[in-house]
């Protein structure tokens, strides 16, 4: 089984690409929502985050106060690094358990790890290949503003905490361009076929 990392900046269309891979039969580990689940379900992690962010990180019902957390970590890189240092190891272990469940089945050619910060987090070391979805900056901002009903300046500040497309592209194995003038579907289908061929070739070598 092949492990593939899928990344891209805010508004790149990474999640859309992930959904296309799912329709093609590839299981997709959605890192962001899974991390948020772990941040409320793992008691030890909850204690660490309260120590880092304060009690305001959680609402009275135990749910994460996402607005509060975002306002703290996106304004303080050191605080963001502390949160990541607590969360990332848990996500890595959770992904490994998830991936192993498909590995044991023996009938899944490849799986996808969708992660906005694949390289920044070091999660690229957990996969065999990586895909970066890229799009022009202005288009990314416009998509994110429309999707989140957010202020453009706020979106750009969030982007400043991520790698640029150029940095991702310099480290990735495959690039999918997703601009208003580039259809992303043909590229996804091409990669799907490529991973299927790699899987078949690897399987033949091992048997």
Summarize the entry for a quick read:
With 207 residues, this protein is of the alpha/beta class. 57% of the residues lie in helices and 12% in strands.
Task: Outline the structure in words.
This protein is α/β, with parallel strands linked by helices and 207 residues long. The chain has nine helices and five strands; from the N terminus they run βαβααααββαααβα. The chain has helices spanning 14-23, 31-41, 43-53, 66-73, 77-105, 137-148, 152-159, 165-171, 185-206; strands spanning 2-8, 28-30, 110-114, 129-134, 174-177. It has a five-stranded parallel sheet with strand order 2-3-1-4-5, with helices on both faces. The radius of gyration is 18 Å and the shape is globular. The model has no long low-confidence stretch (mean pLDDT 92).
Topology diagram in text:
Blueprint: E1 2-8, H1 14-23, E2 28-30, H2 31-41, H3 43-53, H4 66-73, H5 77-105, E3 110-114, E4 129-134, H6 137-148, H7 152-159, H8 165-171, E5 174-177, H9 185-206
Parallel strand pairs: 1-3, 1-4, 2-3, 4-5
Helix pairs in contact: 2-3, 2-5, 3-5
Helix fraction? 55-70%
Rg estimate, integer Å: 18 Å
How far is the N terminus from the C terminus?
A: 14 Å
Number of helices: 9
Overall mean confidence score, pLDDT: 92
Run of helices and strands: EHEHHHHEEHHHEH
- Spatial strand arrangement across the major sheet: 2-3-1-4-5
Low-confidence stretches: none
Say what oligomer this is. Answer: single chain
> How many strand segments?
5
Form type: globular
């Amino acid at each position: 089984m092949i492990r593939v990392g899928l990344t891209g900046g805010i508004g790149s269309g990474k999640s859309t690409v992930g959904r296309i891979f799912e329709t093609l039969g590839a299981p997709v580990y959605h890192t962001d929502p899974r991390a948020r689940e772990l941040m409320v379900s793992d008691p030890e992690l909850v204690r660490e985050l309260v120590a880092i962010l304060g009690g305001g990180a959680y609402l009275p019902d135990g749910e994460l106060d996402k607005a509060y957390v975002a306002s703290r970590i996106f304004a303080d890189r050191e605080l963001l690094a502390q949160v990541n240092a607590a969360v990332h190891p848990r996500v890595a272990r959770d992904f490994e358990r998830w991936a192993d469940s498909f590995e044991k089945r023996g009938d899944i050619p490849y799986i996808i790890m969708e992660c906005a910060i694949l390289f920044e987090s070091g999660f690229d070391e957990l996969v065999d290949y990586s895909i970066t979805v890229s799009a022009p900056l202005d288009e990314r901002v416009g998509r994110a503003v429309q999707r989140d009903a957010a202020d453009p300046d706020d979106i750009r500040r969030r982007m400043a905490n991520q790698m640029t497309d150029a940095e991702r592209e310099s480290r990735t194995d495959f690039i999918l361009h997703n601009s208003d003038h580039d259809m992303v579907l043909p590229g996804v289908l091409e990669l799907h076929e490529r991973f299927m061929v790699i899987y078949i070739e690897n399987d033949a070598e091992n048997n």
